[in-house]
Write a structure and sequence with these properties.
Blueprint: H1 26-37, E1 40-45, E2 48-53, H2 56-62, E3 68-70, H3 74-83, H4 95-104, H5 110-115, H6 117-132, E4 140-141, H7 142-159, H8 173-190, H9 193-197, H10 201-226, H11 234-240, H12 252-283, H13 285-298, H14 306-309, H15 313-325, E5 332-336, E6 346-348, E7 352-354, E8 359-362, H16 364-367, H17 371-374, H18 388-392, H19 412-429, E9 430-434, E10 443-445, E11 449-451, E12 455-460
Parallel strand pairs: 2-8
Antiparallel strand pairs: 1-2, 3-5, 4-12, 5-8, 6-7, 9-12, 10-11
The structure holds protoporphyrin IX containing FE.
Binding site for heme: 409
Protein name: Bifunctional cytochrome P450/NADPH--P450 reductase
Family: In the N-terminal section; belongs to the cytochrome P450 family.
Length: 465
């Protein structure tokens, strides 16, 4: 094939396309450019070039871990200010990633996750109790309440900490610090590096937030060391685990980096998925009905248990389809593998030439609507296409809400069990309505996306189970 130029929007001198990017919802700009310039285009951001891919064919090629590797850049690189070489933000090849990964893989295995069932259910029941006690006609912001739930769940299951978000008017100070830290990391990622060196009120608050995140985490670690328990949670796995390959354990600093990482990575993604799931179901009453029928048939009025969770194929499909249309992590960053010898020149699709350190953004959420894979109804919410049989036959890399290869989500089984429990507890006990039937989906984007101002009303179907 002949080498082709890569299209892209024209930019201004020096700053390039920086001012083209919507500050509130950058995703809108990226998807809009994909519609305009096609499945591969380039942006210039303050002297750095970013390639944005959005078709299955191109993204599939860049998921080949022999040729490409995760790149930590932009807002994600700024998150390193708080969590350094924690699993999510570790650079490719950083030694501590391998040590933590090998120690933590068994801790996220099916056995340990099943062991977290009671605690997960306890918190799902707290959410149900809160909703059951709301005055009649009251509504809740779905994203906010699901965030309380998922944050409490990861804190309790990972490190035995109770944030008690449902019992307090104000959130735990850790939560505010974390939310502000993430927002400012995103802002810093969009600024020119020199601008981040200037001390401002925002940067002062940013580093204060980081101090608080670390202090709370060090205190939790110290508490566990002072009063050890044999709880099978992530904190104990990190304190006691030895890497089978190097024989090394995790330093306190690395434990803290990963504790904060789990709290960050483990809550926004899961709460966003739950909120989008409720939105999708309420917009598609026939899928809502099917899901509730499945839960009534399998769980009925019994307290939810582990065996129920294995028998909910339609609920699984609803979650998968939601993650397809509304992947909370909308894109992942890769670059040509830094440690491998590459063919020269490096070509994508045999016709687009890229540099050895080219930043490439895989716009997974857009790829999930590629008609070449999902057909002409790709934009529609149809859980039937995500039942096991069609799902298992999807082309490789066509469904990627959990990321790629070695650097894919370690918390996937955790999130999945948690989401199934929540769906079962909620639909067993409540009927749901949109608080505003004319609500138009609008998106709040931080490092992840979630529905904005989406309010739900719930009505108990019977006494709480
Ligand atoms: C990585 C999605 C829940 C912990 C990732 C990545 C994605 C993702 C896309 C790769 C990011 C990249 O390549 O830059 C999700 C979604 C979730 C979810 C959609 C829920 C529906 C969780 C939970 C935890 C967690 C509950 C923790 C308990 C992590 C960690 C990584 C990661 C530690 C980094 C893995 C590594 O690079 O070694 N997740 N995640 N995630 N996720 Fe999740």
């Amino acid at each position: 094939k002949a080498i082709k130029p890569i299209p892209g929007p024209p930019g201004l001198p020096l700053v390039g396309n920086i001012f083209d990017i919507d500050l509130v919802t950058p995703l809108k700009t990226l998807e809009g450019f994909a519609d305009q310039y096609g499945p591969i285009y380039k942006l210039s951001l303050g002297g750095k070039e970013l390639l944005v891919l959005s078709s299955w064919e191109l993204i599939h090629e860049c998921c080949d871990e022999k040729r490409f590797a995760k790149q930590v850049a932009g807002g994600l690189e700024q998150v390193r200010n708080g969590v350094g070489d924690g699993l999510f933000t570790a650079y490719t090849g950083e030694e501590n990633w391998g040590i933590a990964h090998r120690i933590l893989i068994p801790a996220f295995g099916p056995l340990t996750i099943r062991g977290m069932f009671d605690e997960m259910t306890d918190l799902a029941n707290q959410l149900a109790l809160k909703w059951a006690r709301l005055p009649s006609g009251a509504s809740v912001d779905a994203s906010e309440d699901f965030t309380r739930l998922t944050l409490d769940t990861i804190a309790l299951c990972a490190m035995g900490a109770r944030f008690n978000s449902f019992y307090t008017e104000n959130q735990h100070p850790f939560v505010d610090a974390m939310v502000d830290f993430l927002i400012e990391s995103g802002n810093r990622g969009r600024r020119l590096p020199a601008m981040n060196m200037i001390p401002t009120r925002a940067s002062e608050a940013y580093f204060k937030d980081i101090d608080l995140l670390k202090r709370v985490s060090y205190d939790l670690l110290k508490e566990r060391r002072d009063t050890p328990s044999d709880k099978k949670d992530l904190l104990n796995a990190m304190i006691n685990g030895k890497d089978p390959q190097t024989g090394r354990g995790l330093t306190d600093e690395l434990i803290v980096n990963n504790m904060i990482t789990f709290l960050i990575a483990g809550h926004e993604t899961t709460s966003g998925t739950l909120a989008f799931t409720m939105y999708n179901l309420l917009r598609n009453p026939q899928t809502y009905k099917k899901l509730q029928e499945e839960i009534d048939r399998v769980v009925g009025r019994e307290p939810v248990n582990l065996e129920h969770l294995a028998k909910l194929p339609y609920t699984n499909a609803v979650l998968r389809e939601t993650l397809r249309l509304s992947s909370p992590i909308t894109a992942i960053g890769v670059r040509p593998h830094p440690f491998d010898n590459h063919e020269d020149p490096i070509l994508i699709n045999g016709q687009y030439q890229v540099g050895h350190d080219q930043s490439i953004l895989l716009l997974v959420k857009k790829m999930h609507k590629d008609p070449a894979v999902y057909g002409s109804d790709a934009e529609e919410f149809k859980p039937e296409r995500m039942l096991d049989e069609p799902f298992n036959k999807l082309p490789p890399d066509a469904w990627k809400p959990f990321g790629n290869g070695m650097r894919a989500c370690i918390g996937r089984p955790f999130a999945w069990q948690e989401m199934l429990i929540v769906m079962a507890v909620l639909f067993q006990n409540f009927d749901f309505y949109m608080a505003d039937s004319g609500y138009q989906l609008s998106i709040k984007q931080n490092l992840t996306i979630k529905p904005k101002d989406f309010r739900l009303k719930s009505k108990l179907r019977h006494g709480l189970t």
